[in-house]
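User: Sequence in, structure out. Go.
Assistant: Echoing your sequence, followed by the structure tokens.
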Amino acid sequence: MTYSLPAEAQAAVDAASPGLQLVAFLSWAAEHLDEDQRTLLSYAASSLVNRGWLSPLPKLLEAASDSLGIAPERLGLAQQALADLGLFEVDGERIVSIAAVLATGKTDITYHVKDDHEERVQLTGPLAALGIARGLSRPGEVVAKCRGTDETKTRVTLVCDVSGVHSRKPESVAMFLPDWKGDTPPSAALRGGGLFLDDDALAEWQTRHDDPDGMPLTSMFFPMAATDLGDKLGTALESMLDHVANFA
């Protein structure tokens, strides 16, 4: 299936700097989704975060209709519109990703919710780590495998409050945000790049991947970028995921 963006969304992506196109797209989406689409995303995200899994699509839509009081036909149309944008990714009846940032399968990046109900949710990629706390309005820790090494025990941690990332372990954490032209689903693009133990690991990964297009965020610039991008992305995700008040 060929993926393409609406003209206005593509224009926003084309105007963004390499590595920042996904932020531009999600910001555009946050402004253009309708109420049913936001509500369905919120319901699915809440179900995933609170339970750790999602029912097959038909059962999820049926449960959402009963819970939200929205006709199944309306939810079906909302789901299809979101799928066309890559914001409700489905493989057969299995839901694969929500809002392009929450994954239902195992990934290298996990968000450990730290509040009254500690849960874990998989993130599609490193960019998601910057905005997920604000998007869900739940503090926690992002724990990720360093993409620059094959040592499975090498981990980096981003500590988040409800406004975003406020500290990192170790302090040398770096990141790479991939380039995206808008011609592949956003969740697939988000899976590119990664979090790295330090600048050396980032540089090694870039060399090994023939210096891919995108935006490297070295340890020096990571705090500023995390604040700026986290605010933009978190605001967008909050707009898409805050229409069902049962995250707590």
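User: And one key feature?
Assistant: The CA atoms of residues 130 and 226 lie 6 Å apart.
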